[in-house]
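Below: protein 1.
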Amino acid sequence: MTDTICAISTAVGIGAISIIRVSGTDAIEIVNKIFDKDLSKKESHTINYGHIMEDNNIIDEVMVSIMKAPKTFTKEDVVEINCHGGIATTNKVLELLLINGARLAEPGEFTKRAFLNGRIDLIEAESIMDLINSETENSRKLAINGIEGKISKLIKDIINKLIMVNANIEVNIDYPEYDDIEIITKKEIEDISIYINKELSKLLYESENGKLIKEGINTLILGRPNVGKSSILNKLIDEDKAIVTDIAGTTRDIVEGQIRINGILLNVIDTAGIRKTDDIVEKIGVEKSIKLIEEANLIILVFNNNEILTSEDKELLEKTKDKKRIIVINKMDLESKIDFNVFKDENIIKLSAIEDVEELKKEVSDIFKLNELNNKDFTYLSNSRQISLVKKAIEQAKNLAKALKVDVPIDILEIDIKEICETLNEIIGESYDEKLIDTLFSNFCLGK
C-alpha cells in the first residue's frame, strides 16, 4: 500500500458535482502538479478554490479538500477534488491524476486501506457497503449500528473476557508459587463457557432479524395454474406486472416485484402454476418454481375456493409443510367446493383477488413480528460470513463444555478457549485470510 490511488467517488454521469478521491503518501504532491494553488502549504481539513490545469490551459474550476494523515478515512493523506459534474470533465481530471503518478483504485480499495490501516474493523467495513446498498430506513439503521461499532463492541467484550480467563490460566500454570493471584478453577471456565454460549446464541437468533432487514423477505406465491397467483402479485405490489388471463398456464416463468411492509422489503415472486405438462417451456417454469421453495422465507400457497383439492394441491402442502407459509383461499366470491378441514392450525386468508390484500399484508407482518422489529435496537449480524463464524464459535463453546465434563486438564482447556477467540477475531477482522479480504472488498463500488 505504498502507492497512491485515485477514483471517481460519485456516480458517473451528468450532475452538479463530481468528486474524485486521491489517497496515499503522494496524494498532495500529485494533485499539486495539476492544481494552480500550492496545497503543501495548506492546513489539514481545509477546502481550497482553484483550477485544474494542463499545459497552462484550464480544465475545470474546482474546490479541493485536503486531509492529512492520520485523521482521514484511510489514515493516509487524502485529497478530494470537487469538479463540475459531467463525464468528459470528470474523466479528464482522473486522466491527469493517472498521468502524474496515481494508480486507479480497485473496487473498495479505499475502505480496504481503512481496514488494513486499523481505521475500521471488518464488521464496520461490511456495514459501509450495507449503508450504500440500503433500500429501506430499517436497513439504513442496521448499517449505521454496524459502522458505529455496536456489534464489534459486543464481540470484543466476549473476546476480552476469554483473554482474561486464559491469562489467569497461564499465570496459574507458570507461577503456581504466587498466593496473590486468582486461581482459575474448572467451575469458572464452565461459567464462561455458559456465558459465551448464551451471548452468541442470542446474537445468532437475532441475526435472522438482521438478514430480514438487510435482504427483505423472499416470498413465493405458489399454486396450481389459474388459482389467482398473478392477480395477488399485482394487488400486493399495486402494479399490473403479471399477465392475468383465464387461460391456465399463462405465467410460464417467475415474475418479481417488491413492496415494503412496516419498513421491511417483501421480495415477491409469482411462479408458474404447478401442474404436470408436456409444454417444454411451461415445464421448465414449473421446475424452477419447485426449486425456489427451499430459498423462500415465506410461501403464499394459493388454492381455488371453487375447486376441490387435487393431488397437485396436496403435494404442494406436503412440500411446504416445514416452511413459514400463509394459506390463501382465493375466489371466495364463487361457490365453495374446497374442504377447509384440511387446513387445521394453518394461517388462512380468505379473499377474492379482485379485493384488496391488506389482510394478507397484516398476516405477513404478524408472522415475522415486524412491528416488534421496528422497536428494537438493530444490533444484529447481517451477512452469511459473520453468521457462519458465530455458529462455529458456538460449536467450539459446546466442545469446551464437553471437555469440562470429562475432566480435561486446564492447560488443554486453554487451547479450546484460544480457538474460540480466534474465531471471534475473524468476525471483526483481527485475524483474516487475505483471499477472503480481497474477495470481500472487490464487491464494493470503485470509489469507495
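Below: protein 2.
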Amino acid sequence: MNIASLLQGIASFAWMAVIGVFAAIFMRTSRNQPVKGLSTAVVVLLVAAVLLTSASASIVFIEPDELAVVVTVIGGKGIRSETLTAGLHWIVPFAERVERYSILNQTYTMSSVQDEGQLASEDSIQVRTKDGQQVYIDASVIYAVDPLKAIDLYRTWRFVYEDGLVRPQARGVIRDVASQYGVEEIVSSKRTEMQLAITEELTRILLANNLVLRDFVLRNIRFSDEYALAVEQKQIAEQQAQQAKFVVESKKQEAEQARQVAQGQADAAVIAATGAADARLIESQAEARANQLLSQSLTPTLLQYQYILKLAPGVQTIFIPSGNQFILPLPDTTAP
C-alpha cells in the first residue's frame, strides 16, 4: 500500500467518523440532551476529513509499469506538457487528474479458434489471394504505448486505440499484403517475405499513431475446404509418385547388385582358372627340371648299383663261379 492509498483510507475513515458524530448529535438533539462536546468533535473531524481528502487527492503514486497524463484546468492547455513516470507525484487537488497508461507490451490476437483471441467468436482475417483462392489468417499484434508520445496518444485516441486503431489497421494491412501473393507462395516460399512486409507496414502505421510495434506473429493460415481437399489429393498423388520412383530405384539397385554378383563370380572363375593353369605350368617346369637334374646325375656305376639293389632287398652278397657269366645281364650303360 502506497502513501496515497493510505491517506485515502484515513480520509474515508474521517468522513465516516463525521457522519457518526452527526448521527449522535441528531439523536441527542431529539432527546433534548446537550451536544456541546459533540459539536466541537464534529468540527475537528470535518476539518481533518477535508484536509486528508485534499492531501490524498494531491498525491499520486505511479506504478513502475505505468505512466500518467495529467489533465488540468490550469494554464488553459488542458494537459500538462510532461507525463508522470513511476513514483510519487503531487498534483493540484480537484483541479487536476491523472490518466494512466500501461507501458507493458499488449497483445491483440485475431483467431478462428474460439476464446483464443480478443473476441470469443471466429475472428480470423479472410483474404483473397492473387490467384483467387480464399484463405483465413490467424495473427497476433504485439505492441506498446510509446512513452515519449503518450500525451499525443491521449489527445487522439484516449483509451480506444486497440479497437479503433490496432484491430482495423492490422486486418487491413494483412488483407492488402496477402492479396499480392498466390496461395502457394503464402504457405511456402514467400510466407516469411509476406510476414516481413506486414510487419514493416504495421510498424509505420502504429508509429504514426504514437504506438510501438513489438512483433507481428503469423499464427496460422487455413484454406477453404475445397482447396484443402485439392491440396490433400495432390499430396497423395505426389506420395504415390515418390513411392513408385522408390520401387523403380529399388529394382534398379537389385539388378545392379545381381549384375555385380555375377561379374564377381565370373571374375573369380577366371582367376581360379588362371591360377590352376599357372600352377600346372610351374609343376610341369619343376618336373622337367627334376628330370634334367636326374638324367645328369646318372652314371654307369650308379645304375649298376641301383640295379643290384632292386634284385632282392635282403640280398647282401652274390657269389658267382669263377669264369662263369653273371646270371643276369647288367644294364647297358652305353645307351644314349
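The beta strands are 59-62, 66-72, 87-90, 96-102, 106-110, 125-128, 134-145, 211-223.
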